[in-house]
Design a protein that fits this description.
Order of helices and strands: HHHHHHHEHEHEEHEEEH
Number of helices: 11
Shape: elongated
Helix content: 55-70%
Structural class: alpha+beta
Strand content: 5-15%
Radius of gyration: 23 Å
Strand order of the largest sheet: 2-4-3-1-5-6-7
Largest sheet: 7 strands, mixed
Low-confidence stretches: 95-118
């Protein structure tokens, strides 16, 4: 009898519990890497595993043996590839943070449906960028979406402040102790400042780009965030998403891009609910 059919025929409650636990852990891991480049790697690994099981079920020894060897070797690489995600996952699981986050998400859904979601103060962000552009004050602002960038936020100074043009400009003022690094904005709040971002390793990027622009590209390569950069040398305003950067945009262009960014995020959230 086919091994898969035999497994179905002898399916027990303990196997059902085993499958439920695996699916729960897989779902929590998916939520952890959602919106990051690690998600594509995870989906590829799942695809290889499914092909391996199909090859075993169809009794294809050459393909199944090859995939078995790939998976065996690949498990060692997973520890390196997913080291930050696995560390956060184990910490959350051990401290009960998963349950707390689920309760917070439930509260947010009820709050949003009952009272409505406050829109981002886009005008305040754009005004700050234009003022800093005129004074050639360098700035790097990150707007989050699904991926809340906890690893990035942990490197900076936590704030949890209401967005205003004056506050953003004061943070990036050259004599301010928080002007170096990036500002992270989430849910209409300035969550943190002076955050350290990953720098892109793309060799095709112009060598004339400074650290702010390279950091903006780097963080958007690894997440679904939108990065806004104000150049200290030229005063030009640029934005980056999905590892691509658009230079020297006008206030109206920046507004359109930010509105589009949050409209897509809201559509995705509604689809998941």
């Amino acid at each position: 009898m086919n091994p898969f059919i035999n497994w179905i025929a002898n399916f027990t409650w303990s196997q059902a519990l085993d499958l439920a636990i695996v699916l729960f852990l897989a779902y929590e891991l998916f939520k952890l890497v959602r919106g990051t480049s690690a998600l594509n790697i995870l989906l590829s690994i799942i695809g290889i595993y499914v092909c391996w099981q199909i090859a075993l079920a169809l009794e294809m020894p050459v393909i199944s043996g090859l995939l078995d060897r790939i998976i065996s070797i690949g498990l060692l690489g997973l520890v390196v590839i997913f080291q930050p995600e696995l560390r956060r996952f184990l910490f959350m699981f051990g401290t009960g943070a998963i349950r707390k986050q689920r309760e917070q998400r439930l509260f947010k859904r009820v709050f949003i449906k009952t009272w409505g979601k406050r829109p981002l103060h886009i005008t305040q962000v754009i005004q700050a960028c234009m003022h800093m552009s005129q004074s050639r004050t360098g700035a790097l602002i990150i707007l989050t979406q699904q991926n809340k960038l906890p690893a990035v936020i942990s490197t900076g100074e936590l704030m949890d402040a209401t967005i205003s043009s004056a506050l953003i400009e004061n943070i990036f003022f050259k004599n301010s102790p928080l002007h170096d690094g990036a500002m992270v904005i989430e849910n209409n709040k300035i969550i943190a400042a002076r955050c350290i971002l990953p720098v892109t390793a793309n060799k095709e990027i112009s060598a004339q780009l400074g650290l702010r622009h390279r950091s903006a590209i780097g963080v958007t390569e690894q997440s679904d965030a939108l990065a806004i950069v104000v150049s200290e040398e030229t005063g030009s305003v640029s934005y980056s998403q999905f590892g691509e950067i658009t230079y020297d945009v006008s206030p109206s262009q920046l507004r359109v891009e930010i509105e589009k960014f949050f409209a897509e995020a809201e559509e995705e959230m509604q689809a998941q609910q």
